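ok so for the tutorial part 2 we go from a plain amino acid sequence to predicted structure tokens. step 1 is just haveing the sequence, like this:
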Amino acid sequence: MYGPLVPLLTSWLFRLFGVSVLTGKLLSLTASLGVVGLVLTNSASRDPRAWLIGGALLFACNHNAYFYFVDARPDMVAIFFALVALLLFADWEQRPRAWTLILSLAMFVLAFLAKQPLAAAALVPAVAEALRGGGLSRRRLATFGFTALPLVAVLLAIASIRWANPTAHFYMVTLPATYPVLPVTALRIGFDLALMYAPLLLVAFDLVTRPARPSDARGRWWSAAVGVFLIAGVVTMAKAGGARNSLLPLFIASAGFLTLQLPRAYGFLDDRTLSIGRRLAASAILVVMLLAFAARRPGEAVAAFVSVHGDASYHDVVALARTLPGPVRCPEDPTIPLLARGELTRSLYFEMDAAYWPARLPAYVDDEIAAARHVIQVNGPFQRLLTDEWLSRLGFGAVPDRTLERSVYRLWTKD
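step 2 — the prediction. this is what the tokens look like for a chain of 415 residues:
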């Protein structure tokens, strides 16, 4: 149900280097390093302290999204393309050149093709223009018209996919649109963000320090990105099956905006002509903002450092699966039987996602697991879909294996 871009890129890399889960992780890592470099280059300028603090904030973004910077998912690739698109469009706004605009629009489309929710980036130019202020002259209306070009490009891409490949359109657009947004979940996420994360605190800091700093087009663009990705992130995370990675664009935009403010904040806090009350208020807000990026709910701080998708024993469990007699299934990580035996099996996560994450799965999922002789279970701190009770009910029993000791993997066998 994700866009086709990252699977296509990964398949090409598989042909060059062979099939491995590390390929997807390295692709995400490369995109993440690109995002970190672009954010710091754009917002920290040449201030070493801003680079240091900004880098720490971006690492905290990774921490808050369960380490998606190195996960084999399309999020960071999509964010990289979206960030490049926005930087190019902002540059085109200052220095209009046809190639910059064309390349920017292509990047907006690539971001959508990598992960559909990043289409929200196409709204950022219009919001940034609105934040400029001023009246609605003819020239200003024309400028607003140009800011609609990214959205037009994305809509044309969607229409082209629907015409050229209706099946891809169904899985990319039609099916995700059927997932309901859960209002109570959206309110809870918004409340958590208001208490624990940066967006509202960023606004507060901006208002407190406004008289001490000149206007900056970069601040306008980062502010627009925070606003757009705040709304988009809450909505997508509140959908059935939504997860914290939906907030990654918001976290990164907030880190960029905050890093941009740091050099000015130093001067503001050192300005002894201002009242001590305002300086103390700004200091308190700045400290809270820095700490908020790494804040976690009780118990999550430790859990976030434990991978839900496997550990260092991955290659050992693949080797073990290769030697087992009879059918082998690993519904939580189908790459294990795929690499070990060349068998393509069902993914429990896909089946849960397709059914809007119900309490019980359809009978055909039970049937496929029950047909196996061996099942490899993957235990993690966030989700444990394939429970001991479920496997026992299907007739499996846990089998100790020395190669899997102290790992997240467990072998279950049917007598």
